[in-house]
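User: Please fill in residues for this 344-position structure.
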């Protein structure tokens, strides 16, 4: 089968023919239809210090966001059959630790991630444990289904507060930010403010219904938002950029007893002004990783099948696997929506 492979240390990858994996007794074999580039894939592609510290060995197939069709199931698989459409839950739980056994599989003590700790899914076929293949309605396009995993991150973040009738601010309008804007409005948010460094991504945010957009570092975000909320501030902040400025501004515009949700991974340590912006405000701060298994997935399926969240419009670039270099170049620029590879 054809696969996008990280063969050795250093920037780049190759397309190579590799063997089709055989599913174990508790695994399913998937014919991959579409795969989407995540920020972590770019780190591994570039082979930066983070990638060097977390990837256990090479060669490794890249990627973890995907959708496809079940073609074979192991003898101990009971919930899936050939022909089923699935999207990938890319957190691999052990199902034996304290967290897995108490309903928190998404933060498994021994969690592994596809395409980071194991072979990924930028290939024509992939095998994965039954719990990580989430059955989805056939009406969802392959392109959209490949983005349900990152959409789930946004939906999981929104679940940490009451959104209906509230004011929200989204820092970072990459794909997860664009999913968050749509989902928040679907849940009845009154205003959704959005900020990013990219003018193009801000146009996309507007097209998805953001109330106001601000170019980071240029527009008077704090003044406008505090004026429009009569000095109170927003009820919830979703921090998806990983930037120090976003933390500074986000905590300033957060109202007292508001909710601050951390989704973006910061490249450098973040400094916080705790007494004024957190302690005296009684701010609630949550960290988010992945999706709750499987509550978040049911929410995403409902949002997508109802048409309230349009994932297809977030995919701005699609390539065959042979054009992976162009795909990773666009993803690294961080100026557009999702970049996908189409396998079948």
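Assistant: Residues filled in for all 344 positions:
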């Amino acid at each position: 089968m054809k696969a996008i492979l990280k063969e050795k240390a250093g920037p780049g990858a190759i397309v190579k023919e590799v063997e089709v994996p055989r599913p174990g007794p508790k695994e399913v074999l998937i014919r991959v239809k579409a795969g989407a580039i995540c920020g972590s894939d770019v780190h591994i592609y570039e082979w930066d210090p983070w990638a060097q510290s977390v990837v256990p060995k090479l060669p490794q197939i890249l990627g973890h966001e995907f959708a496809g069709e079940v073609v074979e199931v192991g003898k101990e698989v009971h919930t899936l059959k050939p022909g089923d459409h699935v999207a990938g839950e890319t957190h691999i739980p052990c199902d034996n630790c304290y967290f897995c056994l108490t309903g928190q599989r998404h933060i498994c003590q021994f969690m592994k991630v596809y395409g980071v700790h194991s072979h990924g899914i930028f290939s024509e076929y992939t095998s994965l444990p039954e719990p990580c293949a989430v059955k989805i309605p056939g009406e969802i396009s392959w392109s959209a289904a490949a983005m349900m995993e990152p959409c789930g991150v946004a939906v999981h973040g929104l679940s940490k507060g009451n959104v209906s009738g509230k004011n929200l601010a989204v820092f970072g309008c990459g794909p997860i930010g664009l999913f968050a804007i749509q989902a928040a409005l679907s849940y009845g948010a009154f205003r959704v403010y959005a900020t990013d460094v990219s003018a193009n991504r801000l146009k996309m945010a507007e097209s998805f219904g953001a109330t106001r957009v601000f170019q980071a570092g240029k527009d008077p975000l704090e003044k406008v938002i505090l004026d429009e909320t009569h000095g109170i501030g927003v009820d919830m902040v979703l921090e998806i950029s990983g930037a120090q400025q976003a933390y500074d501004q986000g905590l300033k515009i957060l109202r007292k007893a508001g909710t601050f949700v951390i989704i973006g991974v910061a490249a450098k340590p973040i400094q916080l002004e705790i007494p004024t912006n957190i302690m005296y405000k009684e701010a609630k701060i949550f960290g988010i990783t992945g999706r709750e298994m499987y509550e978040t997935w049911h929410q995403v399926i409902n949002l997508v099948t109802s048409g309230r969240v349009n994932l297809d419009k977030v995919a701005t670039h699609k390539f065959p696997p042979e054009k992976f270099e162009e795909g990773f170049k666009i993803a690294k620029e961080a100026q557009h929506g999702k970049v996908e590879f189409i396998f079948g």
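For context: The mean pLDDT is 96.
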